TrEMBL record:
Signal peptide feature range: none
UniProt source species: Paenibacillus oryzae
Name of this chain's protein: Multidrug ABC transporter permease
Keywords of the record: Membrane, Transmembrane, Transmembrane helix
Pfam families: ABC2_membrane_4 (PF12730)
Entry keyword annotation includes Membrane: yes
KW Transmembrane helix (keyword) present: yes
Residues annotated as transmembrane: 17-37, 57-77, 98-123, 143-160, 172-194, 214-232
């Protein structure tokens, strides 16, 4: 497993995925800050109001797309140059192949999350917001990351199945809007993209308590295991066409 993860990192050495990880959080934060600055008259809750603006663009749109791009890129490395033939004939289990890619995608998203929260802190100070930095931010970032792992498992399963780089990203974009529908219908705990909305406190900063808190972690874990099992089973049963 460790060797598989190391191999995935080596494949990323000459890629520009790091630039993408930096650009999308920066762009989403700039849009959110501009919106906050233009509407300070109605956004009077300081740090929390700023979070509603920056996390709306980042958590609802940019982050899911970033996850989809990372997963599509990791799978694309196998789809080109008949690399699947070498990968599946090597002494590495299908589970190791999937989880190595999923682990690397998760780590990349974690780096994006850390960058985003640092930019949020910097923006709040530049805007001279009153009050201290919200302690809830750590929870929002970590829950958002865990929900991202569920989305990553889904997107990676799609990307491993489809040779097209863009199609899984297009599916992700459609799922983003479906996730908003599930959230509005109070069914957000049963759809991975809605879990990201809930976890990051995008539309509501109310603290998760009791059943909702437990269900968030259970649902996220369940989606991770479900999509991982489906993808690994397919890798075991079907030949890859390079």
């Amino acid at each position: 497993m460790i060797r598989s993860i190391s191999a995935e990192w080596l494949k990323l050495r000459h890629s520009r995925i790091g630039l993408l990880l930096a650009v999308l959080p920066v762009v989403s934060l700039l849009i959110g800050c501009a919106n906050y600055y233009a509407n300070q008259g109605v956004l009077g809750n300081g740090w929390y109001s700023l979070w509603t603006q920056v996390s709306l663009f980042y958590g609802e749109f940019f982050l899911p797309i970033l996850i989809a791009i990372c997963c599509s890129y990791l799978a694309r490395l196998e789809h080109v140059n008949r690399n699947w033939n070498m990968t599946m004939s090597s002494p590495v289990s299908p589970a190791s192949v999937f989880f190595a890619k999923w682990f690397v995608a998760g780590l990349l998203i974690l780096l994006a999350q850390i960058l985003f929260v640092l930019l949020y802190w910097l923006a709040g100070n530049l805007l001279a917001l009153e009050g201290g930095f919200p302690p809830e931010t750590v929870g929002w970032i970590m829950r958002g990351w865990y929900a991202s792992l569920a989305i990553g498992a889904l997107q990676l399963a799609l990307s491993l199945k489809m040779r097209s780089f863009a199609t899984p990203i297009g599916i992700c974009l459609c799922a983003v809007f479906a996730g908003l529908g599930f959230y509005v219908a109070k069914l957000g705990l049963f759809f991975p993209f809605s879990l990201l909305t809930i976890g990051m406190g995008v539309l509501s900063q109310n603290k998760l308590e009791g059943f909702q808190h437990v269900m968030f972690w259970v649902s996220s874990t369940g989606f991770i295991l479900l999509f991982a099992a489906m993808s690994i089973s397919r890798l075991k049963r079907k030949d890859i066409v390079s």
